[in-house]
Each structure stands twice: as structure tokens, then as C-alpha cells.
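Sample pair:
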Amino acid sequence: MRLDNYGQKIYTVDDLCNLYLIDPDRSIKYVLTETPILFDGELEIVNPPKTILYTNPQIPLREFDSIAQSAWFIPAEYKNFDIAKYVLDLCSTDEELQRAGQELIMFQERDMFELLVYLKYLVDTMRKNGVVWGVGRGSSTASYVLFLIGIHKINSLFFDLPIDEFLK
């Protein structure tokens, strides 16, 4: 299996055989392949995946990302969620409001509000299901907004982490 420039997984026949040897009940719905793969009885596969012949997208990466993001599963109550209001409502001091506001502008300039909403949904889902995730790592810990949403446990204001360290 390899990834193309857009992060799509491209499978070979050997890749699929290995997947099904490891986990024969795997429920893959479709796979991208560079050569046609026919499930004609040679392999005893329950619910074989639909194979889609891979063609390298001829669209810019930003447009590809926008199309892919529009297909994300997100419940209706999050579709029109006002992430900026939510984040700003969590702030209790002027310093927190100023930092969160600056970061929200940076997220907006990068057209990343939908990602923030999705991250909020992800955190809510993990909490609801008792999933434990890391305390944080890398430059994301410099983001006070991500701290407020719950992505990580590092308060960048408390540790005086500079705003220019995140979104590198």
C-alpha cells in the first residue's frame, strides 16, 4: 500500500491478500487500485470490497481537501456550530479573550473553522465513549484554542508559549 500526494491509500493485490490473511472478516467497503482486481472466487472473501481504479486527481490539493472535508461524517447539531462563540465563551479573563481571538483569526485566515468544529465533535465523542487521548505534543500545544476545545491539556497561557509556535 502506498499513499499518493493527496493521502489516498492505493492498494495492490498483495496488500489486499495480506489484509485479509490478518483479518478475514475485515469490512472494507472499497479500495483504490492501480490495476483492476477481480474477486472471482480465487480468494474466499466475505463481502469483497468494491475496487475503484485509481486515477491521479488533476485538481489542486486545496480543492481536493475541500471536497474530502465535505464528505466528513459530522452530526447535524455540529454542522452549524458556532465554534468562535463557543471558544470565546470559555474565556474568563481579558488575556484569555485576546489570545483566543488572535488564534481564531489565524484559524479563519487558513480556512480551518470546519476543522475546529470537527475537532470539537471528535473530543465530545471521545469523552462520551471514555476514550483516552494524549496530553498533547508538538506545536499544537502552543494553541490556546485547541486547549479550550480539549484537544490537549497544555495551557499555553500558563506556560507562556508564544502564539507563533502553533500552525507551523
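The chain has two domains: 2-58, 76-165.
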